Amino acid sequence: MKKVSLVVPSYNHGEYIEACLDSIFFQDYGNIEIIVVDDCSNDNTREILHHYPKKVTTEKTSYAFNYNEKKDTIERREIFRYPQAGRELRILYNDHNMGATRTYNRGLQETSGEYCSFIASDDICHPLMISELARILDAGLADFVYGDMFIIDDRHRILREFRLPDYSFEASFCSWYLCGVATLYRRELHDQFGYYDENAAADDHECYLRFARNGARFYHIPKVLYSVRSHAQRNVGLHAPDRFSKLLEHSKQLVLEARRRHGRIES
């Protein structure tokens, strides 16, 4: 089973980060490297991250497993709360606030798995996500795999289902950027074509378009594998109005670039 490396960039998501990390720990895939990179959070994120590794290795829970008729007691079995095998956890702390893209790159440069991705620290991976995505890479059908998503609110209500198109360069890059965030890809793509552009407002869009333009094979799995946290009511960080406007403007330019490459508009 090939190692999957997941980078979790963290900034002021103390309310969400434990649930995000739990969703990775409880994947049904058995070989995951988790690298958390905190970008100088000033809420309670660092305190939570400080205690999380001990929780993973020591916390226990129990369940009823037998009725002892002679003693008229219900017996309980104690187990570790978290999976104790097939997980590597590293937590890194930036010395100064580097911003999201540089934080992704720092984490990715520390990875050792054959497959990789990044997971936003307020999102949730569904339990079969990694095994479903890795299956396509293992079969040699693609270099980059993506699935569908739910958009959820802070109470985990599903606000909408986000179904993405089956891959073609036209569908995923020429109409709009439609590869989503439930992704897994060969780490060697970064070795061949570079990391996330630290000057790009739409950093994942630019990076994945670069992969596609250089011949990476993409594949869509039409299953909901991930839940994206809605920021409609918060408008902070990347989703602050000025930053999000810059992201959208950059994405528009990338779509035009893709259309020129695809011959839809003249250079």
Q: How would you describe what is shown here?
A:
The protein has eight helices and eleven strands. It has 267 residues and is an alpha/beta fold. The model has no long low-confidence stretch (mean pLDDT 94). Helix 7 packs parallel to helix 8. The protein has a single domain, classed as Spore Coat Polysaccharide Biosynthesis Protein SpsA, Chain A (Alpha-Beta Complex), CATH 3.90.550.
Task: Please sum up the structure shown.
With 267 residues, the protein is of the alpha/beta class. The chain has a single domain (4-262), classed as Spore Coat Polysaccharide Biosynthesis Protein SpsA, Chain A. Helices cover 33% and strands 28% of the residues.
The whole-angstrom Rg is 20 Å
CATH class wording: Alpha Beta
Coarse morphology: globular
**Largest sheet composition:** 9 strands, mixed
Name the average pLDDT: 94
Helix content: 25-40%
Low-confidence stretches: none
Count of domains: 1
CATH fold type: Spore Coat Polysaccharide Biosynthesis Protein SpsA, Chain A
Distance between the termini: 45 Å
Using DSSP, what is the number of strands? 11
- How much of the polypeptide forms β-strand, as a percent range? 25-35%
What structural category characterises the helix and strand content? alpha/beta
Secondary-structure element order, N to C: EHEHEEEHEEHEEHEHHEH
- How many helices in DSSP terms? 8
Q: Let me know the CATH homologous superfamily.
A: Spore Coat Polysaccharide Biosynthesis Protein SpsA, Chain A
Indicate the multimeric state.
single chain
CATH architecture: Alpha-Beta Complex
